[in-house]
Amino acid sequence: MSSAITSVKTSVKTLAATVPAARWRWLAVAALLAAACYAPFQLAPFHVFQLTMVLVYAVALLGLDLLVGHAGQISLGHGAFFAVGAYATAIMLDRLALPYPLTLPLAAGTAFVLGLAFGVPAVRLRGLYLALVTLAVAIFLGPLLKRFEAVTGGSMGLTLAKPQPPAWSGLAEDQWLYLLTLVVAVAAFLVAGSLLRSRAGRALHAVRDDEVAAEVMGVRLSSYKTLAFAWSAMFAGVAGCLYTWVIGFVSPDSFTVNLSITLLAGLVVGGLGSMSGPVLGALFVMFVPGIAQDINDAAPGVIFGLLIIAVMYVAPTGLAGLAGRLVKKVPRKE
Amino acid sequence: MTLIVEDLVAGYGDARVLHGVRLTVGDGEICAILGPNGAGKTTLLRALSGMVKVRGRIALDGAELAGRPPDALARQGVAHVPEGRGTFMPLTVEENLRLGAYVRRDRASVEEDLERVHTYFPVLRTRLKQAAGSLSGGEQQMLAIGRALMLRPRLLLLDEPSLGLAPLVTRELFRIVQAVNAEERTTVVVVEQNAHLALGIAQQAHVLETGRIVLSGTAERIRADEQVAQSYLGYRV
Amino acid sequence: MAGFLQQVVVGLGAGAIYASLALALVLIYQFTGIVNFAQGELAMFSTYIAWQCVAAGLPFWLALVITLVVSFAGGMLIERVIIRPVEGAPELTLVIVTVGLFVFVNAAAGWIWTFLIKDFPNPFPDGALSAAGVSVSFSTLGVLAVVALVMGLLYVLFQYTRIGLGMRAVASNPESARLVGIRVGRTLALGWGLAATVGAVSGVLVAPLLFLEPNMMGGVLIYAFAAATLGGFDSPLGAVVGGLIVGVAETLAGAYVDVIGSDLKVGVPLAIILGVLLFRPQGLFGRAVVERS
């Protein structure tokens, strides 16, 4: 037994020695992507649906991470931007009868513009107060949606037809939705990645790490913080659009403050400021409540609450950080 | 109260500021700590009052003080007038003074001491009900020293009392410190940029440089040392 | 006119409750610079304790005393166990930890007492005083009296006791407080205990008006935030005045502004928070934040 472990360790070591760390990451990403493409053809429809929702949440968390993890701003109301994307899509499909591919850029744009508009006053708020305002916005959204019933369907919400797979593809609905979501999600991660590597991304990190120093170095704080808000809202809007496609139903009760808090919880547990954090967080948000619910209706909340606190104590970088530490440890043992 | 410091090492996090300081201050003496900016003078005082983690020995009349928290040291009679004066801005002048005696239980003598502080600093008496934040810099420094005296300290630590004050005010302040020392036999350690003033009231002095004491002696001897005067004290004799 | 005054009275009654929770928020903020997002949930949990005592057959006022004592101890415990390890951490961390506490306490209450709503006894008699066409229910009067009493007790504590003086010293300058011999850690725990106690009062006042359930305080919290923001996060007096203003503003807006009506009233605290933060960030009674050198 122990000799088997040793031999695995040595082979990992030799592998690690021959392949540089950066390439390891690409290999892992490629393997993950291959698995992601293969999954819908192997799993039952319900599991395919679950994976689709994981991708939806991952995009939302990616947006939230831009703001919280990369720009260091606090948002307790990100569910509101998610809802904006979802409702914009629903309204375009239902009231305007637009073809669904068009709704994606339009929903993203709507959320981006709203994020920009919201970001302008938001940049004047110190972290704590920003948390207050975003929380208030998230609370206000529900009544607002219910009030404008003519457009939003009020508390009954809107029910929509889901995008159907084209006949030539031979795919089932759940598979088609999954693949659509996968493509959008991968694109979202690529866009976010290049955003973060750009000048603007570096400026954001500088702002997060030390506002004063960043300003001294010539970073225009307010414009970058506003932009961070807008991008972040845009990704949340994209996720909201995907949500409407996949679920085919929106109602105010789907986007309560709970959603905002769940998103933040998922991100914190998954890991702030990394690319894998949102994915791990999304898996967590999707599966842990379901499992915990079997114990008690309140169990997901208890677990979430405790985990959020525990993560802030022992592993502020979340699951992604823990995984990163483990991965790094292997080659270092040379 | 005799203060004995041996092999004192202190710093912030990984950055070590003091590298083995050793000094002795006799009962009722005033000891001046001189030296350039960044030498570790403030850290030395913070070490003596428990505000930074330390290794080594700090003994006040045989009682070991090293490693104890500031509130415990206050109970032992160590009063620290910190850099920036540590004023409780929104509180009244009287409340600030009473806080100085926070750990004392002898109510009657606290009232006496309040009276005594008023005699040292008559200006405070006229401002008792005023918010401390509204005082001028010099008045705040007086308040800070008054607050420290309210503890009936056995060891008084003064950090840059002259900082930001007009020369005349500073001179007055040092005169009062000297009077307090003479009347109450309080042992005083004073960190000061203005070496001339500090040496004027101190019996002995130490010059600190990059966390080490590079020169010790009586105040007269330090003052007379021309080389010291040039390199550390910033003036010619 | 009577109709208008009637609305103001109703608003004051609601405002007094917002004020009590805002007071709890301010107590903690003063000492630790933390805005405790879990304050409402702690109040809700305390209310359940009171409910449990009453359900066990204890008279209401005894149940209240037990609740306040348990809440005080609980608040101190939370400071020791949950907040102490992240003391001095970045704001982001602190906010996230209190949000975690929010989620945890909310769910824990649901676990223990289920999510079904419960009736909570009203300690005040039914009926109302009427004068000049305006009627004030005993319930409203009771709430106002209790909040005034809490405010008065806190005032005495802070102004006339040694512990209170020490607490104010810690709030104003923790390092200097340590130097004069105040045990700062103990004082912070005390602050959390006090806040939890005051919060418990607000929970017990709210519960008879709403129904007792784990999400009861979610709606109240946002009004309390607005009240504390308006009054200034570092001013207990401001929290109370702010609470009353928010309560009256909300009621009047609901009654007289058609666009808002009863269903968009929750937009009022949002507007107040945004307005205050953008135009007078320190609030009505708060001190402008000056960077300490």
Description:
The complex is a heterotrimer of chains A (334), B (237) and C (293). Chain A has helices at residues 2-18, 21-38, 45-70, 78-94, 100-122, 127-147, 149-152, 173-197, 199-209, 211-216, 221-247, 257-270, 276-293, 299-314, 318-332; strands spanning 158-159, 249-250. Chain A has 334 residues and is an all-alpha fold. Chain A has a two-stranded antiparallel ribbon. In chain A, helix 9 packs across helix 11, helix 12 packs parallel to helix 15 (318-332) and helix 13 packs across helix 15 (318-332). Chain A starts with a helix and ends with a helix. Mean pLDDT of chain A is 80; it is low at 1-5 and 329-334. Helix content of chain B is 39%, strand content 26%. Chain B has ten helices and ten strands. Chain B has helices at 41-48, 70-75, 93-100, 107-120, 122-125, 137-149, 167-184, 195-201, 219-224, 226-233; strands at residues 3-12, 15-25, 30-34, 54-60, 63-64, 78-81, 155-159, 187-191, 204-209, 212-218. Chain B is globular. In chain B, helix 3 runs parallel beside helix 6. Chain B has 237 residues and is α/β, with parallel strands linked by helices. Chain C has one domain (2-220). Chain C has helices at 2-32, 39-55, 60-83, 91-113, 138-160, 162-172, 174-179, 184-206, 216-231, 236-256, 267-279; strands at 128-131, 134-137. The longest helix of chain C is centred in the first third of the chain and has 31 residues, at 2-32. Chain C is globular and about 60 Å long. Mean pLDDT of chain C is 88; it is low at 289-293. Classes of the chains: A mainly alpha (334), B alpha/beta (237), C mainly alpha (293). Chains in contact: A-C, B-C. At the A-C interface, helix 6, helix 12 and helix 14 of A face helix 4, helix 9 and helix 11 of C. Chain B: Belongs to the ABC transporter superfamily. Chain B: Keywords: Amino-acid transport, ATP-binding, Nucleotide-binding, Transport. Chain B: One of its GO terms (molecular function) is ATP hydrolysis activity. Chain B: This is ATP-binding cassette domain-containing protein.
List keywords for this structure.
heterotrimer; A: mainly alpha; 15 helices; disordered N terminus; disordered C terminus; C: 293 residues; mainly alpha; two-stranded antiparallel sheet; globular
Task: Kindly summarize this structure in a few lines.
By secondary structure, chain B is of the alpha/beta class.
